[in-house]
Amino acid sequence: MTPTGSSPRGRRGKAALFVVLCSWAGVAPHWLEPPRNLLPAASLTLLLGAYLVRNVLGQLWHRNRAQSSADGPGLEAASGEGSWPGPWPAVDVVVAARDEQAVVGRLVERVSRLRYRHGVLRLWVVDDGSEDRTPELLKALEASTPMLRVLRRPRHAGGGKSGALNAVLEQLEGSWMLVLDADAGLQEDLLERLIPLAEQGGWSAMQLRKAVVNAGCNLLTRAQAMEMALDALVQEGRLAGGGVAELRGNGQLLRREAITRAGGFNEDTVTDDLDLSFRLLLAGEPVGVLWDPPVEEEAVLTVQALWRQRQRWAEGGLQRFFDYWPGLLSERLNPAQKFDLTNFFLLQYVLPMVSVVDLLTALVTRTAPTVWPLSIVALGLSGAAIVAGCRRPSEGPALPAMNPLAAALGIAYLMHWFVVIPWVTLRMALLPKRLVWAKTQHLGSEAGTESSADDLSLAIDPLADQLPDPSTQVS
Question: Which of 115, 131, 142, 273 has CA atoms 20 to 30 A from the CA of 352?
Answer without folding.
Answer: 273
